[in-house]
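User: For documentation purposes, I need each entry recorded in a consistent format: the amino acid sequence on its own, followed directly by the corresponding structure tokens. There are two entries in this batch. Please keep commentary to a minimum and don't merge the entries.

Assistant: Recorded as requested. Entry 1:
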Amino acid sequence: MGSQEGITLIMILTKKEKSSLVGMILGDAYLQATGKRNARLRLEHSLKQKKYLEWKISLLPLQFQGVKHIDRIHPKTRKKYSYVRAQSDASPILGKMRSLFYPYGKKQIPENLSRYLRHPLGLAVWYMDDGYYSNRSHDRSVHIYLGKVTEKEAHSAREAIEKRFLLKSTVVNKKEKGFLLYFSPKETKKFFSVIQRYVIEEMRYKLPS
């Protein structure tokens, strides 16, 4: 069955679609197990990023259950906040991706990431989710937060981006915040030349003005 699922993944998802899915998983998406072989994709964003969420849905040939508006009360501040959520139907394709990115139940960056992150759209989605542009006069640079991954995982991310997109970065340990990838001003210019065409209007605030 494992090999059959792998074939299904390749047949159904194009390189562009697979890369966009991987960018979502590396960023803010969550893959929820729904049995031994299936999983579903959950996407959540702030209310002001609803169009971004809808755009993400449009990238994938998956069946989604619509976009839901959810209100919550913060347990500490007691302030109300709102966000939007979209959840896909369960699929063995997503189950295969969960086994890759959640081998022990916790999200991690696989060593062979470059096999899956092969199209710049995936890098663009990852950046729109977890990246930011520093506009300081002495250091105009891109950063992609990786969170609390291991140093080995951080280097897997760095190596995948360099291998696929010829973009060099440095792994930086932010201690309590985890690791991030830092792109020098020179590499930042190259970075934006790779992803700029895929950044939608609602997220262009993450590009240089």
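Entry 2:
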Amino acid sequence: MKPLDPTAKVDFSKFGVRFQENLAKLITLDRVFADQIGEVLDASFFEVKYLQVFTKMIYDYKEKYKVHPSLTTLATLVRSMEGENEVIEKQVRDFLVRIHSTRVVDGKDFIKDTSLDFCRKQKLKEAIIKSVDLLNRSSFDEISTIINKALLMGQSNDFGYDYVKDFEKRFEIKVRDQVATNWKEFDDIMGGGLGKGELGVIISPTGTGKSHVLVHLGAQAIKAGKTVVHYTFELGDSIIANRYDSCITGTPLSDLYVFKEQILEEVQKLKGRLIVKEYPTKSASTLALRSHLEKMKSRDIDVGCIIVDYADLIKPKRFNSEKRHDLESIYEDLRAIAQEFECPVWTASQTNRSGYNAEIVTMESISEAFNKCFVADFIFTLSRTLEDKNANSGRFFVAKNRFGPDGLVYPIFMDTSKVKIKIKQNTSGSLGSNPAKTQEQILKEKYKELMGKNKNVNKS
């Protein structure tokens, strides 16, 4: 064992600059971790000067104002920097811009554990060196106090959201970065679409076209310039890709091979990108999805929207005695993936028998696990009777909406031969400019219709 050398240089250089930048990013974004490591961190541990200046700026602000600085506050502090040369100032500004552009930190748990372990060892080493002189004076109580204090420093102190320390956090401008559905009525009540970190679910009986709806949602994200990852657990990847061909170009599925060159020319003009990943039914868990997404991120593929067709067919990470517990866990994991990769996730769920051929499907018809609805941010149902399928029609029912009103019924046009889905405009004018009817209005109309039929029967 090497003897302790108080003059030896101590820094993070052996971990690399990328590690140090991610550590500084975590200190910026995670107030609890910043407080924890702040007890044992010395800015000089950073190998590069601009990270020393940046982290010192954060902790100086925390010391003076007793709150953790927001990104907006840091931007103001960086703009008013004094006493540093132009190169360092530019590096600090560029680093803050990189934090603004992406707040995801790869391997954050490893970075936290490694940096805390390193810093705590340095504090303990300082305490041991300081104790040498005390040992010569037989100051055992003081030695015990110094060593115990060093051991306690840097331990977890996460008590939750601190009302004062996290003051600036609640005044940050929240950006949802929505991906539109291209159904104006839905986008209006959702505040522009489904945002990053949010989970949307479509519920419908088997054979009604929920996979087509998911393709429509993915196609709109591609048109908006997003990279869409479409996971399919039921259909082949080429079949899903064909449906995107039809949805994007308007070419009937039966004519795709005839217009192959024209389709290629059109899809090459798209702003976004589509990746279809096929898994056999119940063969992959959410861990497999997360691993696949991590690999793409490591290759600088910025995922902008995730489609899972569909969640009920994902393999549980561990099998419980009741299927409903497995499904609840899957939906919770999907929302966690949405938050971790900062993009919207759309998936589907199948109804039970009561939803089959129903005129309006409500959440009561959801199959197996009603609790999986709790974590979703937006839920809508698709109902299509046999008559609807023949007439290329159906209904959307907004069952849950964290962003605005719900309980709305929208009549739709749905042509599965072209993967074409539109919300019909109201032509009666009875509901003003809003084409949707609430579930209560629908039921009242059906009740009046039924009562009228009964009166006619009684008269006859």
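Summary note for entry 2:
The chain has two domains: 13-171, 184-424.
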